[in-house]
Design brief:
- The chain has about 500 residues and is mainly α.
- It folds into two domains: about 5-365, no CATH class; about 370-490, no CATH class.
- The protein is about 70% helix and about 0% strand.
- It has a two-stranded antiparallel ribbon.
- The protein is globular, with a radius of gyration of 23 Å.
- The termini are far apart.
């Protein structure tokens, strides 16, 4: 096929780009707002290192996926190929901010160290994503969806949705209308006045209200131009190395989130294939990981990924041009400091409206996409995040040790809570299905992880006599016993396998 027949841009690319634009701006505004206003990070760090890294990492991936679409077009002899959407991962942004960088800052009050550990976590995440090309399909087959989605829902409900609501509630005269516009546009799927996209309409109305009520002013806008400059990307290898020295306590967060992201990438590619664009899943996983590592090398602690949503842009007729526009936008904003001007115009509390939406949708997804009988398992997987999030706020009320006076569970379950969520969700899902052998294996894994301090402990070590280790060991024996009884007893209830599921 003559490659000139596949156009660089089509009209629908502009629509697709603006469809992603509000989400892109919101995520960057959240990063700026949280890092500067919550973590007290120097503006020079955010504008001079973080945003250029985001720009480079996102542009590399976006341009690659535009080229990938071109190659697929040539291979198939078609010109209706839609590039896979790519950019900052919403999940990673909020997990990195509130479960990795936030705890570092709240403990040390050192925003630079928080950033460095975020960089190290980002590199590890990128490597795991690349390795996902080897293990992804196997992981998808063995892990109950209730456990994977339930663990993510816990973070979404607490660290995303509830945390966002705290910021939204700080200026309700400005934020409640944008919240309702997002609900109308995204949940009700109804039109906004003048056919504005819901995201852009929410940002526009929220910005106007913020200026009317005096939350934004000309003085702040004028001062924001001091951050506009040309920021040349500079490798931050030394900062990454320093982050690796302190990454240990956060591996229990990074690893399960990246395992989940591997499955999400698989689902994204599968949805593109179902829509008629047969992309290579392994190539996509490798590129997601490379883009993430490139961004980290130049200062971004936030992983990038292919989004679920390709069929949406396919349906409206987008091609590859919208990814070129997306990559160019991130590059321009990252290398010029112009996002500082945007931040002076749009209050970050308005951007938090999108985090609320993400928290609600990802929380709901865990129930909608899991078997109905596994709903209790989803809730059980959510509990550790609720405990961890509540413990964080209790600790802020006074001395950190004060939470132990209420319940030591706040601390023990808060350490490694994402892995604990996966374990608890998988345990109950397997028990509901009477798959006692698999449940016993999960309990055995929990016993080992607890014994070495990977979960339920503040640091790695040996905790063979720890209460959680002993408890999980007892559970392993119990479930193994049920498996033996199930195999030998004629009265035992049968396992629920593919093909004999209960009908809801």
């Amino acid at each position: 096929m003559n490659e000139t027949k596949y156009p660089l841009f089509v009209k629908a690319d502009v629509d697709a780009f603006f469809g992603l634009l509000s989400d892109s701006i919101a995520k960057v505004l959240i990063i700026i707002g949280v890092m500067i206003y919550s973590f007290n990070a120097p503006a020079s760090l955010v504008y001079g290192r973080v945003l250029p890294g985001i720009g480079i990492g996102t542009a590399v991936g976006a341009f690659f996926y535009a080229h990938q679409a071109k190659r697929l077009s040539q291979k198939l002899g078609r010109i209706d190929i839609t590039a896979q959407p790519y950019g900052l991962s919403s999940t990673h942004v909020f997990v990195w901010l509130y479960s990795i960088m936030g705890p570092v800052y709240w403990t040390t009050e050192d925003p630079v160290l928080a950033w460095q550990i975020g960089l190290a976590a980002c590199v590890i995440g990128g490597v795991i994503e690349m390795l996902g090309s080897l293990y992804g399909e196997w992981l998808r087959k063995i892990t109950p969806r209730a456990a994977l989605l339930g663990s993510l829902a816990g973070v979404a409900i607490t660290y995303v949705g509830l945390s966002a609501m705290l910021d939204i509630g700080s200026i309700p005269s400005v934020t409640l209308i944008p919240v309702m516009l997002v609900f109308i546009g995204f949940f009700a799927k109804d039109k906004l006045p003048f056919s504005l996209p819901a995201g852009i309409g929410a940002v526009l109305v929220g910005t106007i209200l913020a200026w009317l009520f005096g939350y934004k002013d000309i003085t702040g806008l004028a001062s924001s131009f001091e951050y506009t400059s040309v920021y040349f990307p500079i490798p931050v290898v030394g900062d990454i190395v320093n982050g690796f020295r302190n990454i240990g306590p956060f591996l229990a967060i990074v690893i399960p989130i990246e395992l989940h992201n591997t499955l999400t990438t698989l689902q994204s590619v599968e949805s593109a294939n179902a829509a008629g664009d047969p992309y290579n899943a392994k190539e996509t996983m490798i590129m997601d990981g490379l883009g993430t590592c490139v961004g980290a090398l130049f200062g971004s602690p936030f992983p990038t990924t292919v989004y679920i949503g390709h069929p949406t842009w396919k349906e409206i007729g987008a091609g590859r041009g919208y990814m070129i526009l997306e990559g160019s936008f991130y590059l321009l904003m990252g290398l010029t400091g112009l996002m500082g001007v945007v931040n002076a115009i749009v209050p970050y509390q308005v951007a938090m409206v999108f985090l609320l939406f993400i928290g609600l949708t990802q929380g709901a997804q865990a129930f909608n996409k899991s078997p109905k009988r596994h709903a209790p398992a989803v809730w059980f997987a959510v509990f550790p995040a609720i405990i961890a999030w509540s413990g964080k706020w209790l600790a802020k009320l006074g001395e950190a040790d004060a939470i132990d006076a209420i319940s030591p569970t706040f601390r023990s379950v808060g350490n490694g809570y994402i892995v604990i969520s996966l374990i608890w969700g998988a345990l109950l899902a397997f028990i509901i299905d009477r798959r006692y052998k698999e449940a016993a294996v999960v309990a055995a894994v929990a016993t080992v992880l607890s014994a070495i301090g990977f979960i339920h402990a503040t640091e790695l070590g040996f905790f063979f006599t720890g209460l959680w280790t002993i408890g999980y060991l007892f559970v392993t024996v119990l479930l193994a016993g049920y498996h033996v009884w199930q195999q030998k007893s004629e009265n035992a209830q049968p396992r629920i396998e593919a093909g004999n599921e209960e009908v809801a």
